[in-house]
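Much of the work behind modern protein science is quiet bookkeeping, done one molecule at a time. The protein below has been through that process, and both of its lines are reproduced in full.


***
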Amino acid sequence: MKKYIYLILFSILISCGGNQQFIQEIASQRMKQNEEFFNKSITPLDSHLFDKFTGLKFFEIDENYKVEATIEKLDQSPIFDLPHSHDRTKPYRVYGYATFKLNEKPYKLTLLEAVNKKTGYEKFILIPFGDKTNGNETYGGGRYIDITIPEGNKAIIDFNMAYNPYCAYSAKYTCPIPPKENILDVEIKSGQKYEFAGMH
């Protein structure tokens, strides 16, 4: 299995041009994601999907999808119940807003912060988003990006790091539903694809 994973990494590296350090960092992260999915003891895959799994699929690494955003932080934002899959909700607050340009066009995303954070995610905030690839090349319920809480008013948003929620792979997980304002009117051909499209 390790050999298969390293072949994935090698194929990524030779198929991409540009900043090799950036490409290697993204490729290494993707390899770690594949290792998790192939590990039967921790994989989020349901058993019937695990048997069909041949590796996570990704768009080509593209540094143009790594953008610098201006962060507008909200102070004392009220706690609200964020809709999740399976008709569930969990408490979140709006951390703030990120504005940026992608291919010279301006966009804005709402940043969310969980009230009850998982261990290891204390310094992270969530960007759940949708785009025009959802339901076709990517998961229909949207994808996520985690970013570190910024120290100032700038942050890097790298769509190459966009990933599918675990509820895309198993009904035992509940996942935040991207708010309407985070549904982008553009195809974000970056990050993780959905290899089981049409199977749920």
